[in-house]
Each structure stands twice: as structure tokens, then as C-alpha cells.
Amino acid sequence: MGWDTYNAYGLAYNETTIRDNADRLVSLGFRDLGYDVVIFDDAMTERDRSANGSLVENQEKFPSGLHALSDELHALSLKYGVYSSAGRFTCGSYPGSLGYEQQDARWWADLGADYLKYDNCFNEGQAGTQKLSYDRYGAMANALNATGRNITYSLCNWGDDKVWEWGCTISNSARMSGDSNSFDQPSNGCPCDADEFYCQKFPGYQCSVLNILGKASYIAGRSGPGFWIDLDMLEVGNGGMTTAEYRTHFTMWSAIKSPLIMGNKLYDLSPEDYAILTNPAVIALNQDPGGSAIARRFVQQVDTKDRWGVGEIQVWQGSLWQGDQVVVFLNAANETQGLDVPLWRIFGTPGNELSLRSWDMYDLWAENVTMLADVARQVLNGTLELGPKTQGYYNASRISWREGLAANDTRLLGSFEGTVEAGGTVSAEVGAHDVKAWRFRLVGKNRLQKKDEL
Ligand code: GLA
Q1: Given a cut of 50, is residue 448 above it in pLDDT?
Q2: Is residue 6 assigned to a domain?
Q3: Is residue 88 in some structural domain?
Q4: What is the mean pLDDT of residues 31-60?
Q5: CA 326 to CA 305: how far, in whole Å?
Q6: Distance from Cα 178 to the centre of ligand 1, integer Å
Q7: pLDDT recorded at residue 197
Q8: Is the CB of 230 under 6 A from ligand 1?
Q9: Would you call 452 helix, strand, or coil by DSSP?
Q10: Is the minimum distance from the CB of 4 to ligand 1 under 6 angstroms?
Q11: Which positions fall inside the Alpha galactosidase C-terminal domain (predicted)?
Q12: The whole model's pTM is what?
């Protein structure tokens, strides 16, 4: 989890941008939720290398020097993320690292870098087979390892050459799609034919949340501890989607266990967006110790298409730590839908063992689970300091997600909504472009764990 400059600033950021947002990561409690990497996404250096081939710091943008900034981040218990491309140039036409892997890895390690995002622009045609991509990205893996510094390695090859099939052997995460920027708008830059497996002709750009979810439904199961499939940075807070759409985007990215990298202006957040990004019950899905991604169970077309002709409902389900389950109803149509879904469809097959149990359902977006608008407003304007008792807030630096879940912390479970009996049906109204998301827990589990009943 972290924060990245690109979605909100493009290449136009400097040390003030970094400092302002880093301060907000701390004061708004994001760091203590786990958003702790600050990624300088492209445009960190001069346009040319030095005579000996070294990268050169951009002094105009970073007059204090990158080393000093890295130290400042570390002093705040944040991590320093850098960026380059496995190509001749980066996507912003700064020097890329192809052929300079060892020299650049050393340079970043000396600056105290903790994370590398490694892009795919200007790759000199060294793509098109898994061998070509693997060798190109593997060279940087070797170079990072040779530095002896612990640097998280994040591939950004947009899913080229089916990176989810080989990325886990050399990296910690891999982007599986082109850049995202809307909820549902189809784009020629990111084509998707219904009959095409994985929905991808070329990685593309301007991919919608729904397009990315469609692709992720085929490959999310490749994610696991040590290697996460990255659905792209979050757009929450950038203004291009409705609150319901941001809620859906954030829920799905969390439950699929994508890295949660914000890409917004942290000193310009609305209370609604702040409450989404800090929802402890949803982040608990992302940080679940079980480490399994949610799976799409079915998609059903409905009549109420939106202006792009998109109109469907989707049901997703996944396994959580210690037998809990996550269930999501997603309404991608433009009118509220009433859904009645039998448990066997939620769990995949008729007679499925899990559908023959009774489940308590905890709503992950109930009022009070997220920060109420009033509380969020006060924290944002500095009149309320976050503390252990702040409504809707969870500090995972104090009590880890694992400890919190083991202790049945109600902030992580969500709000009890009711019970669905064995073999029963879950019914819910879901607003347009919104989700209903629950943690399912076997009936009796909480009660059995109470000391006086043991
Ligand atoms: C590509 C990546 C983005 C970002 C930019 C930087 O488009 O996909 O995430 O890193 O390059 O220029």
C-alpha cells in the first residue's frame, strides 16, 4: 500500500509535492493503515545520463537532493519508491534502465530506495514472447538482489506476455493492464471484445474499472503472498467518478488483493473519498492473512444499460482467513437492482459444502463502519486528531490486521446485518454502479469464542 505521484500530477511534481503529501499520509492516518510507500513516478532525473552513464538527479525539482528526501521519508516511517522503465527511455522520455540495470539499481540503493516500479516503455522490441520479457525484467531483479538492499520489485508491463504466468519468480507485484481512468467508459485505447479470452488485444491505456475487472476475473487467482497482481493505482479522490463508483473501485481492488496505491492530492480530499480510502473493514480484506484473491462467480446481463451500453450484475466470492468469506454483489447497470442469489450460486456449484452452512452477514459499507462525514471533515481540516477512539478509524501500526481479526475487532468485521440460513438466498438492493459487500462468518463462531462459553 502506498501513494504515487502519477495519477494526480503526471510528471509535474517536485519536492514540495512530495513533502505535502507525505505529511498528509501521516496526519490523516494513512501510514498507520499501511499506505506507507511514496513513489516518485517518472521524471525524477535529468533527461541525460552523466558522462559515466550514471543517472543524474533533477536539482531544479528536488533542490534538497534525493538522498535528503529519502531520509525525510524514512524519518516519518515512510518508504521511498523510485521508478524506471525496462527500456531505453521511461514513458515520460527520461533515461530508462535497459542495459544499465546494475548501475541504476546501485544508484537507487545508495539513495535508500525501498521500492521500484519498473515500466515497459521504449523496450526496443524486446517483448512479444515470455522469454524476451522475462529476460528483460529478470535482469533488473538480479541487479536489485545484487545491491543487498531490500527493494520491493513492482513490474509495470501492463500484462504483456501474460506476466501473471512468470512474474512471481522474479518480482513482488505486476500490473496486469493499461492505465485506468474511468468507471465504465469503453476506450479505443483499451479494446475489449466480448468473445476474446482475457479481453486484451494490447495492454492499452484509458482502461475502465469494469474493463480491468473483466481481465482480472481470469487471472486474480494467480495472486498470493509474495506476488500480487496489480490492477493499477487507485483513482479515488481524483474526481472522475461518483462516490458509488469509487466505493466499487476500492472494494474490488481490495478484495482482489491488488496493491492499494493512492494517486490523489491528499490535501484536497473530500470527506466521502477520505472515508472510502480509510474503511478498515474493506482494507482488512486486502490485508487478510489468508492472502487469497476473490473470484468472480457469475455475470448476468440486465436491461438497464448505461450510456455506454454496459448493463450487468456481477457476483464475486472469496475465502478469508480462518473460514470467513467475502461476498460482493456489483451492479454495473445504471439503475438500482434487486438481487436474490442462492448460496450455491455465490459459492459456485450446486450442493457446494459452504452453501449448506448458515452464515452471519456483516455489511462492510454500513454507516458507522466507515468514518462519518462529520468526523472525516474534522480530521481533514485539522480540528480533530486521530486517536484510538476515533469513529471509523483503525490504526494497524498499533494493532496489526491479523491481531485485530483474531480479536474480532468490530471495526474490521463490518456491521452485523442478519443471517442467511443453510441453503438459503441472499437478497439485496444494490444502487447503480455500487456494491453490496459482506464478510460472511459461520453462525456461532463468535459466540463459541467467548471465554464464558468455553
Ligand atoms: C505509464 C505507466 C503509468 C505511469 C506513467 C509514467 O503510463 O503505466 O502508471 O508510470 O507511465 O510516465
Answers
A1: no
A2: yes
A3: yes
A4: 98
A5: 27
A6: 9
A7: 61
A8: no
A9: helix
A10: no
A11: 311-369
A12: 0.96
| CA 91 to centroid of ligand 1, rounded, Å | 6
Q: Are residues 50 and 113 in the same domain?
A: yes
φ, ψ at 36 (rounded to 5°): -120, 0
Q: How far apart are CA 443 and CA 454, in angstroms?
A: 16
Q: Are 315 and 341 in contact (CB under 8 A)?
A: yes
Q: How many residues does the chain have?
A: 454
Per-residue DSSP letter, 371: P
Query: For the chain, what percentages of helix, strand and coil (3-state, to nearest 5) are there?
Result: 35, 20, 45
Atom of ligand 1 nearest to the CA of 91: 12
| Helix (H) or strand (E) segment spanning residue 145 | helix 130-147
The rounded Å distance from CA 87 to ligand 1 centre is: 13
Q: Verify that 314 and 200 share a domain, yes or no.
A: no
Regarding whether 308 and 282 lie in a shared domain, the answer is no
Domain that holds residue 50: 2-287
Please work out whether the CB of residue 41 comes within 6 Å of at least one atom of ligand 1.
yes
User: Is residue 42 within 6 Å of ligand 1 at its C-beta?
Assistant: yes
Residue matched to cell numbers 451492479: 331
Active site residues: 119, 179
Q: For position 196, what pLDDT does the model report?
A: 60
Q: What ligand 1 atom has the least distance to the C-alpha of 232?
A: 9
Q: Do residues 237 and 354 both lie within one domain?
A: no
